[in-house]
Design brief:
The complex is a heteropentamer, with two copies of chain A (about 300 residues), one copy of chain B (about 250 residues) and two copies of chain C (about 230 residues). With about 300 residues, chain A is of the alpha/beta class. Chain A has nine helices and 15 strands. In chain C, about 60% of the residues are buried. Classes of the chains: A alpha/beta (about 300), B alpha/beta (about 250), C mainly alpha (about 230). Bound molecules: adenosine-5'-triphosphate (ATP) (2 copies) and magnesium ion (MG) (2 copies). One magnesium ion binds next to helix 1 of chain A.
């Protein structure tokens, strides 16, 4: 079980002449919950499609459980599922959409409780929404139905492309819980792309930054958290005497916040246009005595030149 | 001189190439361009009735008479004939070779030998119906051996040969069929030359009283030209596969 | 004008008195066209799916060829099928010439490019996300094809209705391969052609109207398939 | 089988030696079908748009009727158009019977339901957001229709190609309204019918192949319209 | 000019039996920048479609400049534009998509600078994206192209349905600026629906909350700011002796933040599940001495029972 679930080697993907992705090496351990962040067009969706084996990379290999796969290999087909950035519902009712994937797996007729539960996970009342047709949904509702249709499959790998875009805050929280439940309940591995760094930071173990198709922080083990930092990385005065391969960068305190869900506190920092966050018990946050807008320093691993 | 003359005619005159042969000569001599539409006899007469053509050239004496009597046509003139032959498989299972027409038909019925009828109210079909009548036989409409094709002559021949049956055929089409089968057709002539097998063609001008716009002058020129000794000679000279097909008989 | 009115009256009369010739022709039409539609749908839907969904070399050229086959003259099909089914032809032993199943073969050839071309167009016109969605939900190649076709059902209905229109109105194949044999392979269209040739225009129109009535029945039966596919 | 090979050889021979009868028939076919296609597209595209895009009462019934008209037998159309254009008919004075424009009228009637039905299907199959998007960008009713049709161009192409296939292969109207008059209204299909009737099967197949060649040329010309409409 | 741009009276909208919107009275003044917030399915998109005259309400009247309009009235057609929640690009290149609306207005060929400028407003490099076809875009890029196609029209009314969903943070900031520029440069009136309350609060003059199709705060003049509060509304101890019709509600400090764009500070508060915000100079925020998670009180106008 020490073998990583995904191993990516020398991945390059082109659209016509445009290179969209260039990832020399990447490993995703079993049971990891990984966040993908990066500007529009940085390649998040492309990477997710490749991890879902929907698109074959122009170059390089993607191994799943040690073997290369295609959309036809049953393991990958039934074990991996992707929520598209703009989900598409089949031209049927909500329930039929939920049941479709189960039917494909030949698990006979989907049990009603199963479907109801999936709807509840994404905050949709089964009684109200079960009956709706595919076009009788608002944007956020449609997105949540699509997500429910993935959750109900209890897939081993859950790839989510902006699951909370267009979704209201309470539902985003439910989605966060559903994602984490997937790992707890059936050991799912998750990769989640999102622009909502706050939400993402609270949901995933680590965030990988993508930019122009490059992974900003190389993630091989031991993984260096790129965007979620530890308290040890934060300095209120400029640190001296760092070990080799480490640098200090000035940052500003962008925000201090209290998270109603778990009562914990959080510090958001901005350094060189990139956001970092630190999650601590509320008291510790207060104990740091930070003020919004205040200057501080972060100590990071030196990044190799791109 | 000049102008266009519109004629409705039966498929046989077109299929044999007779009109392709006559029309350019007619145009050269009179300046009149002959245009024709080749269809079933019934439709040709109906087109005449509706004043859509100026002249008709057909071979169904009974229908022609009615056409004239109804006032749709005038000046019916017999111009030529050819003849029909009764064809069948060479082994002649119904044994009609050498019999008279009436005996032959009776024998077909007795043997339930397959007989393919045109079944399309064409001149040929009308002839066949007349033959049954003259022989004092009921037309065997629903008998399983009596196959009603409802198609042109050539396709009826194909049908008959596929089914190894008998059929009535005009001689022109049979020539073609014979030639297409390198002189060894799957159907051979079993009965021919009886007087009732003559196939009379007539030309009828559309009645100008009923159709004011009909070009009766041109129609009459054409009718006269066909009946003239010159026209009659041209018909006699027309050959299919080296054999004369039509016998001119204008009075 | 008279023909049209007479034809209308005549159509009702034929139906009302249960004219045996008319009903025999109707039966032949229904039988051969049903067989032909069945065959062309069974072959044409999957082929059309591949043509519209696949991403293989020469796909565009193939589409052009299929589109070209939309202009296959029925008489040509009739002649070619005849050449095969004739006693002297390679399939002569099957004894299919001048039978309704033989006729249906020709009509299926006529309908096949229609079904294929329109199915391909319908599949191409679907949302690009559909295929990805089905794959992410775990569809196998077969399941993908089936669901895609089902999502494209409006377009497939159009394909089928169009092909049906062609099959049910064609004359050339029915004449050449069917043989227009009374009580056997005489279809409504060959009967119309025959009556028209005889100059019985009103009767021809009457039969034409009856054929349209048959098509109307078929289409009314399809109405419910249209439901539920659009908001 | 021989017929087919002979027909192929014969087709090349006819084209190579510029056989005047063949080229006259080709010209008649091109002329009448072009006229018919023009008329049916000019009428059928807007009507099909309304049928597919509009939200009026009775729309579904109307679609069913149009679909039914896909099964209009050509001989019936021929007879009806004949009834109007005949000297005795209401439009007899136009002198259109046995002319190519008269024939084109009948063929346009044949093509119209095909264009309408397939245009409606294509328009219905478009993304629901298209219409809203055009309105939010300020499109008038006419601009909306034009852009919608342009976005549906793949489907319209299918409609046109299908209608063309029908028009170019039909025999019934060409026989009845055109009259199959040599050098004038003899089209390729009526020539095929004529040759076949005479038993000149190889010649019939040759002409059929030539007609297919014409359709291939037309479709090759359309290939570039396909470009750029799909990823 | 004192007449409001939009006047809505007795608006009710049903989808089948479901009521999606019920707004007895609503007025939008000229030049206002209004935010719409509310959970999924609360009716935001429906309201925007009705304001764009794309959909006629089941009941009630919507007056634009004092007169009812339909999608056919040229004023409304060319003056009002809506960015759909899931924008649709015409099957053409990016440039042709941008030029389409201008062409409809018969303004001849669009000038290149105009189109380039619109792309720059949404953060897309004209040189790079001008040439792309409609499918050669990432989700966020497509959204921004669609927005640019609206901005280039310089419409009098700009209705934006979740313009930043799926858009990266820097672009969201650009979109915010573009929206405000529209008001400054050509006096546009804006209504913007979004789930990103932070972004929305920073962009609009006032936020209207929608819930189950009801406007949570009745917005007629004088508008009671529902979600953006003034410093006077915030109390650190429970206030007594309030005037009639006013209530105090307990709240918690959800966050303190520094906004890099304008250097100002901001306090986020949560009361009864609703978010309020207060924007102040950074020093004043610090001067309040607040801590994340701290308890405070808000004084609000008493809300009439729904
Ligand atoms: N089908 C395609 N053809 C050509 N280029 C494409 C295609 N799909 C994506 N691209 C380009 O590839 C790059 C990566 O796109 P991708 O969708 O992976 O970005 P993303 O990180 O998901 O962006 P977003 O945050 O906007 O969703 C972008 O520059 C995009 O324009
Ligand atoms: N075409 C439709 N038919 C039936 N019901 C619909 C339709 N469109 C929307 N609805 C319903 O109307 C309500 C309002 O939808 P609307 O799209 O306006 O919500 P919204 O506030 O924009 O939500 P979101 O934040 O998810 O975009 C929802 O309950 C939705 O399910
Ligand atoms: Mg993406
Ligand atoms: Mg919405």
């Amino acid at each position: 079980m020490s073998e990583p679930l995904y191993q990516v080697r020398g991945l390059v993907h082109h659209y016509g002449p445009l290179p969209a992705l260039d990832i020399p090496r990447l490993e995703i351990p079993r049971g990891a919950v990984i966040g993908l962040a990066g500007p529009n067009g940085s390649g998040k969706s492309t990477l997710l499609r490749i991890l879902a084996f929907l698109e074959a990379p122009s170059q390089g290999r993607v191994l799943f459980e040690g073997a290369p796969r295609g959309p036809e290999s049953p393991d990958a087909r039934q074990g991996i599922t992707l929520l598209l950035q703009e989900p598409y519902l089949l031209k049927r009712g909500v329930v039929a959409n939920l049941a479709y994937g189960l039917k494909l797996r030949g698990r006979g007729r989907a049990r009603q409780e199963q479907l109801d539960q999936a709807l509840e996970w994404v905050g949709l009342a089964p009684r109200e929404f079960g009956r709706r047709r595919w076009y009788e949904l608002s944007g956020g509702e449609a997105k949540r139905v699509a997500l429910a249709a993935r959750l109900v499959l209890k897939p081993r790998v859950l790839l989510l492309d902006e699951p909370t875009a267009g979704v209201d805050a309470p539902s985003a929280e439910l989605i966060r819980r559903a994602a984490l439940r997937a790992r707890e309940q059936w050991g799912a591995t998750l990769v989640v792309a999102s622009h909502d760094l706050t939400w993402l930071g609270r949901t995933v173990d680590q965030i990988w930054g993508l930019e122009y198709g490059h992974l900003a922080a190389a993630p091989p083990a031991p993984p260096t958290p790129a965007l979620a930092i530890t308290p040890q990385a934060l300095y209120l005065r400029q640190p001296t005497d760092l070990g080799p391969g480490r640098v200090s960068v000035p940052c500003r305190v962008a925000g201090l916040s209290w998270e109603p869900e778990d009562g914990r506190g959080r510090v958001d920092l901005l350094a060189e246009g990139r956001a970092y966050c630190l999650r601590l018990p509320l008291e510790e946050v207060r104990g740091l005595g930070l003020q919004p807008g205040q200057q501080a320093w972060l100590v990071l691993d030196e990044r190799p030149a791109a | 001189a000049g102008g266009q003359l519109m004629m409705a005619t039966t498929t046989s005159t077109d299929d044999t190439g007779l009109l392709n042969y006559l029309a350019p000569i007619f145009q050269k001599e009179t300046g009149i361009e002959l245009k024709w539409t080749a269809t079933g006899t019934g439709k040709a007469l109906e087109l005449g009735k509706n004043c859509d053509v100026d002249v008709v050239l057909v071979h169904a004496p009974g229908a022609e008479k009615k056409f004239v009597e109804s006032g749709a046509g005038v000046n019916r003139r017999q111009v030529m004939y050819n003849d029909f032959v009764l064809l069948g498989p060479a082994d002649d299972p119904a044994g009609i070779k050498g019999k008279t027409m009436a005996q032959a038909l009776a024998s077909l019925r007795q043997h339930k030998a397959i007989f393919v009828s045109r079944g399309d109210k064409s001149g040929t079909h009308m002839m066949e119906l007349g033959l049954w009548k003259k022989a004092g036989e009921q037309v065997p409409d629903k008998e399983s051996w009596y196959v009603q094709a409802g198609q042109g002559m050539y396709k009826t021949l194909i049908l008959a040969s596929e089914k190894k049956g008998y059929t009535l055929c005009d001689r022109g089409t049979f020539f073609k069929f014979e030639a297409d089968n390198q002189g060894h057709p799957p159907l051979v002539v079993l009965l021919e030359g009886e007087p009732e097998l003559l196939n009379q063609y007539s030309v009828i001008e559309v009645n100008p009283a009923a159709c004011p716009k009909a070009k009766q002058d041109l129609a009459k020129r054409f009718s006269d030209w066909l009946a003239s000794p010159h026209g009659q000679k041209l018909m006699a000279d027309f050959k299919v596969y080296g054999k004369q097909l039509f016998t001119p008989n204008a009075q | 004008m008279n023909y049209i009115l007479e034809g209308l009256v005549q159509a009702f009369r034929l139906l009302a008195r249960g004219d045996p010739e008319t009903f025999s022709a109707l039966e032949a039409t229904v039988r051969s066209s049903s067989l032909a539609m069945l065959a062309s749908l069974v072959l044409g839907l999957p082929l059309g799916f591949v043509l519209g969904h696949g991403r293989f070399r020469g796909r565009r050229l193939l589409r052009t060829l299929v589109d070209t086959c939309l202009a296959l003259p029925t008489v040509l099909i009739g002649l070619v099928v005849y050449s095969f089914l004739s006693r002297r032809g390679p399939l002569g032993d099957w004894g299919m010439l001048f039978t309704l199943p033989g006729l249906a073969i020709g009509q299926a050839i006529l309908a096949l490019p229609v079904v294929m071309a329109l199915t391909a167009t319908a599949v191409e016109g679907l949302d690009r996300r559909l295929g990805l969605t089905l794959l992410t939900l775990g569809a196998s190649r077969r399941q993908l094809a089936l669901t895609t076709l089902w999502e494209a059902r409006q377009g497939l209905l159009a394909a089928a209705v169009n092909a049906y229109g062609r099959v049910v109105t064609e004359v050339g194949i029915a004449m050449m391969v069917g043989g227009n044999i009374k009580w056997h392979t005489r279809t409504v269209t060959t009967a119309i052609a025959l009556e028209t040739g005889k100059g019985e225009f009103a009767q021809g129109i009457a039969l034409g109207i009856i054929l349209l009535g048959l098509a109307l029945l078929v289409n009314l039966g399809l109405i419910r398939l249209r439901r539920g596919a659009t908001p």
